[in-house]
TrEMBL record:
GO cellular component: membrane
Pfam families cross-referenced by the UniProt entry: p450
InterPro entries xrefs: Cyt_P450 (IPR001128), Cyt_P450_CS (IPR017972), Cyt_P450_E_grp-I (IPR002401), Cyt_P450_sf (IPR036396)
Lineage: Eukaryota, Viridiplantae, Streptophyta, Embryophyta, Tracheophyta
Main localization, broad class: membrane
Origin superkingdom: Eukaryota
Protein known as: Cytochrome
Cofactor(s) it depends on: heme
Keywords assigned: Heme, Iron, Membrane, Metal-binding, Monooxygenase, Oxidoreductase
């Protein structure tokens, strides 16, 4: 188990670590600090999760629209191919910063390598099996260099999070219109009304948690579903028709349109079925002995839920390898974790607290991409030639970036420029 020290304060990496022993077990070298106020952290995390569930922090939303407006159209005017995966990653980084920290941060304000690289390395290190965990006496030698690399990353995160807190303290006298997650936590910390100890280290720990949990998830989801749309031109056309009917061609899709977009909803469910971005969820721990399907599971077992395999099980899904959004016509299956055949956000009280926000971003950005542009593949590539290889990690992304050439569909819309 690794401890990361910086300026005498420690940062932890994941709320789930604080809740170890309740019903989920994450055992990675990134378990950084055992707080003696585990109840305090638990309460604070719950408070933030409640905020997340009730308040979608939609300060982030215009960012989605702006970014979609700004980047692809430029390329569209000159028929230049767009690296969609890269654009989505930077869009998601902007939205995450806006939502968690209340403002956008440039990559170099974080670190010379930028958010994506550093977070990607953190996620890869977290998922890499560590010999020291299995053969404890080897731990001290750090033979794979994982602890050393993680310490370097922790210093980058800690410096950045200290800066964010400092800025929030400076701004706290101003009457801010939009609340971000740091504001919420600073309120808990400063109110003195909390029945638990909650200090700066805890604020940093939760900020880090949110940053990592939201940075790659929505972008990777959109990347996969959009790839499927490009591979299935008929589905793309059908979705464009729905958007034309509901939204028309004289304005862009807005959040208020989303609930009317029934086919979009099916496309997204079908995308999640084939490409759950956390294929094994996060490891859980059984809190009591139980029997499932004739298998005895003792208390304290580590449980991996293989949502990837569930999504492709032919006993549940006819022709499971086919991308067919129509399979959801007339179906009540939703994404909230009540239907065990489709669990992209997990299930139960430890399911994803960012579901509402993540889903809104996915729906809005996908709708914008499909509504605003027609898309074709570069170099006369055929849809079936698209490389669908997966890159395994905590978040399972496309191994190859998706690239495509957009052409405007909404020529007359203000805000879409040809610059
Ligand atoms: C499409 C986007 C997203 C997907 C598919 C997704 C998926 C997941 C999954 C599968 C889990 C593990 C659940 C389990 O093991 O049962 C999880 C946990 C979590 N997610 Fe998300 N997520 C997304 C967006 C977000 C966003 C935007 C945030 C924060 C703003 C967020 C914050 C978290 C946190 C804090 C946890 C840990 C919860 C706990 O352990 O109690 N997620 N997410």
């Amino acid at each position: 188990m690794l401890k990361l020290d910086h300026q005498g304060e420690q940062v932890s990496h994941d709320i789930v670590h604080f809740k170890v022993g309740l019903n989920k077990d994450i055992s990675t070298r990134v378990t950084l600090h055992k707080f003696n106020t585990i109840d305090g952290i638990f309460h604070a995390a719950l408070e933030v999760e409640r905020e997340l569930k009730e308040n979608s922090f939609m300060a982030a939303q215009p960012e989605a629209t702006k970014a979609v407006q700004k980047h692809p159209p430029r390329a569209a005017s000159s028929g230049v191919e767009v690296d969609i995966s890269a654009k989505l990653a930077s869009l998601n980084a902007n939205m995450t910063c806006l939502m968690v920290f209340g403002k956008k941060y440039m990559d170099d304000e974080f670190d010379e390598r930028g958010f994506k690289d550093v977070i990607e390395e953190t996620v890869i290190l977290t998922a890499t099996p560590d010999m020291g965990e299995f053969i404890p006496f080897l731990d001290v030698f750090d033979l794979q260099g994982l602890t050393h690399r993680m310490k370097e990353l922790a210093k980058i995160f800690d410096d950045f999070l200290e800066k964010v807190i400092y800025e929030h303290v400076q701004d706290s006298k101003e009457d801010k219109q939009t609340k971000d997650i740091v504001d919420t936590m600073m309120n808990i910390m400063q109110s003195g009304e909390a029945e638990f100890e909650f200090d700066r280290r805890n604020v940093k720990a939760i900020m880090l948690d949110m940053l990592i949990a939201s940075m790659d998830t929505s972008a990777t989801t959109i990347d996969w579903i959009f790839t499927e749309l490009i591979r299935h031109p008929k589905v793309m056309k059908k979705l464009q028709n729905e958007l034309e009917q509901i939204v028309g061609l004289n304005r862009m899709v807005e959040e208020s349109d989303l609930e009317k977009l029934v086919y979009l909803d099916m496309v997204i469910k079908e995308g999640f079925r084939l490409h759950p971005i956390a294929p094994l969820l996060v490891p859980h721990e059984s809190i009591e002995d139980c029997t499932i399907d004739g298998f005895d599971i003792p208390k304290g077992s580590r449980i991996l839920v293989n949502t990837w395999a569930i999504g492709r099980d032919p006993e549940i899904w006819p022709e499971p390898e086919k991308f067919m959004p129509e399979r959801f016509v007339g179906s009540n299956i939703d994404l909230r974790g009540r239907d065990f055949q489709l669990l992209p956000f997990g299930s139960g009280r430890r399911s994803c607290p960012g579901l509402h926000l993540g889903l809104t971003i996915v729906r809005l950005v996908l709708a914008q991409l499909v509504h605003c542009f027609d898309w074709e593949l570069p170099n006369d590539m055929k849809p079936n030639d698209l490389d669908m290889t997966e890159k395994f990690g905590l978040v399972m992304a496309r191994a190859q970036h998706l690239r495509a050439i957009p052409t405007h569909r909404l020529e007359n819309i203000l805000g879409i420029s040809n610059e």
